[in-house]
Write a structure and sequence with these properties.
Structural class: alpha/beta
Helix content: 25-40%
Oligomer: single chain
Low-confidence stretches: none
Strand content: 15-25%
Bound molecules: ligand BES, zinc ion
Shape: elongated
Length: about 500
């Protein structure tokens, strides 16, 4: 993982391959830029003019520092990069992340291993953690299956964040520590999503969870028999076509005693959809649609990512993580369209399309989570293709029954640089999920509003809890690669949930 260090040594003395100087569009040059330009005999700003650098978000201009300049002027860096942040008044955290993601990608391409960033150019302390997060998220690589390691590993190894003063350096240190936890948690979720489904089976997820049990985190795993005893007919039904045993994974973080005194600690239940492979079951997907279906456990991966850092982050909240991990496969034993399953609280669901399986497993798990009487109930699920049709591949759908909680989730997402957008739990559509054979059916008769009708079915299982549902089918997986999300699993939701939990402190 990318290593960060803080330095209050002068910018010119930084011994790095590249020095990054962030600049705003349409502002006078910062004094530092003028000075470095002078040291380089005017070459930096000459290049700015030649390349028509305007300072648009993530736009860059680079100048090499000659050996003679380095020697004569005592400069430590080998090249200087101006990085555009757009207009100062239009600058926000999304632009920040995009700009710093891009500069990291550019450095990696040039095989730079150590760079320095002059953070004064970006803003106050609050922005520094976001710079570190963006840089490390862009630096992520999943290369374990590449045999040409040299070709595969183009990692930036170290970033020196150059601060104004020793005092500022001390003040920024907790923000960097926190960013490093956010990064580690996101990396874990990305790894779990990127690993092939034949490796990341329900049992594998259960073992991953058990690995997280230490300190204030405990973990309980149940197998098929116990799931049956609990009466989770939804999970059992979806899993019955597969040779892999389903696992019900329960993680519990209890904050340290010092927190529980005085004000009441909030209790939060977080459920993640954990279909380790979604072939669709007998309502089988097309070859193309199935290609990426190892990602159907991205919600579960986010829950595990969150739990992997709770001991260190120590939020002032009791957190319960729930995952029903199973495969959705076709076979002679698989659920058949028309079958009816009995869920944990006893309500029945008619399975008309075995590919709408996430809502069936979540029905059990949400109802089970409600028994803890949580202050807040949150679920993350790669639930519907319909949500991708509605919001595209980078924005998660946010649905729920409590405006206060939804506002908190939205705020936490903005802070994380993740995009969520509300969709309504439209009452008029409720009757679309009523079945003539059972209490509910798992699909509707038409193809419209699928993200909403799926969430409406979940709502039937959350009792009176304050609940927020994130449909992450789009942003869980990045198809092309953006500034801060390389192709593959994104780890979406991890930092949003962590920010939310920290907010309770
Ligand atoms: N896991 C899929 C949803 C999905 C699609 C996630 C694409 C990520 C990318 C889910 O189980 C599913 O198959 N949903 C169906 C529901 C339909 C049968 C009503 C869908 O969205 O097509
Ligand atoms: Zn499906
Ligand atoms: Zn699915």
């Amino acid at each position: 993982m990318l290593n960060f260090s803080l330095s209050s040594e002068p910018v010119e003395k930084q011994q790095v391959e590249a020095l990054v100087l962030p600049v705003f569009k349409a502002e006078p040059w910062p004094v530092l830029v003028e000075e470095i330009n002078k040291e380089l005999g005017g070459r930096l700003l000459a290049k700015v003019a030649k390349e028509r650098f305007e300072g648009k978000t993530g736009q860059m201009v680079e100048t090499e520092v000659s050996m003679a300049h380095k020697r004569d002027r005592g400069l430590g860096f080998e090249k200087v990069v101006l990085l555009g942040l757009d207009k100062k008044e239009e600058f926000d955290d999304y632009k920040l992340r995009k700009a710093f993601g891009r500069v990291v990608l550019a450095m990696k391409k040039r095989r730079v291993e150590k760079a320095a960033i002059w953070v004064k150019g970006v803003g106050g302390l609050a922005k520094i953690g976001a710079v570190a997060e963006a840089a490390a998220l862009a630096d992520y690589q999943f290369t374990i299956y590449k045999t040409d390691k040299d070709e595969a590993k183009k990692e930036l190894k170290e970033i020196v964040l150059v601060m104004e003063s020793l005092r500022q350096k001390v003040a920024a240190s907790p923000a960097i520590d926190r960013a490093e936890l956010m990064i580690r948690a996101t990396y874990l979720a990305r790894d779990l999503v990127n690993e092939p489904a034949s490796k990341v089976t329900p049992s594998y997820l259960a073992r991953e969870a058990q690995r997280l049990a230490h300190g204030n985190v405990s973990v309980k795993v149940r197998g098929r028999l116990e799931i049956k005893k609990l009466g989770m007919g939804g999970v059992l039904g979806v899993a019955q076509g597969s040779d892999e045993e389903p696992k019900l994974i329960e993680l519990h973080y209890r904050p340290a005693v010092k927190w529980s005194k005085g004000a009441k600690v909030k209790k939060v239940v977080i459920c993640g959809k954990g279909i380790t492979f979604d072939a669709g079951g007998l309502s089988i997907k097309s070859g193309e649609a199935m290609q990426t279906m190892k990602i159907d456990m991205a919600g579960a991966a986010a829950v595990l990512g969150v739990f992997s850092v709770l001991n260190e982050l120590q939020p002032k909240a009791e957190v319960i993580g729930l995952i029903a991990a199973c495969e959705n496969m076709p076979s002679g034993r698989a659920l058949k369209p028309g079958d009816i399953v009995k869920t944990y609280p006893g309500k029945t669901i008619e399975i008309l399309n075995t590919d709408a399986e996430g809502r069936v497993t979540l029905a059990d798990v949400l109802a089970y989570g409600v028994e803890n009487k949580p202050d807040y109930l949150i679920d993350l699920a790669t639930l519907t293709g319909a949500c991708m049709v509605a919001l595209g591949q980078q924005v998660a759908g946010l649905l729920g029954n409590d405006d206060g909680l939804m506002a908190k989730v939205k705020q936490a997402a903005v802070l994380a640089g993740e995009k969520v957008w509300p969709l309504p739990l439209e009452e008029e559509y409720q009757e679309l999920i009523k079945s003539s054979m059972a209490d509910y059916k798992n699909i509707t008769d038409n193809k419209y509003g699928g993200a909403i009708t799926a969430a409406l079915l979940l709502r039937e299982f959350i009792g009176k809890s304050k609940w927020a549902h994130l449909d992450i089918a789009g942003p869980a997986f990045e198809e092309k690669g953006t500034a801060t999300v390389p192709k593959g699993g994104s780890g979406f939701g991890v930092r949003t949930v962590l920010n939310l939990l920290i907010g309770f402190s």
